[in-house]
Amino acid sequence: MEIINALGRRKTAVARIYMKPGNGNIIINQRLLESYFQTASLQYIVKQPLSLTGLLEKYDIKVNLNGGGFKGQAEALSLAISRALCKIDPEHRLVLKPKGLMRRDPRMVERKKPGRPKARKRFQFSKR
Description:
By secondary structure, the protein is of the alpha+beta class. The protein contains four helices and five strands.
């Protein structure tokens, strides 16, 4: 019984997963998937790589998630699962890549600049 590990990131969220053969349990920070991600859309994002490859009930996944918000965490977890599936069988890449699940989204929040209220926002200009 081999344990596959993978890492996924999105914005400031980091997902470390440990995948082993099992019956489809997804445990996130010692909580079930349904109690951690309560909306159906986030659960769909997480399960999408497994359902596309037809392995929804084949693997148990233990996840350590930290940083970011719920949406970023769900997308980081989706990337980590996709990477783990490609480690198991490189043929899965042909299914996952066209759906955009193998790409790490590089967009990050731009840093705040000194003397400004936000990254690009200026203070109100007064002519007189």
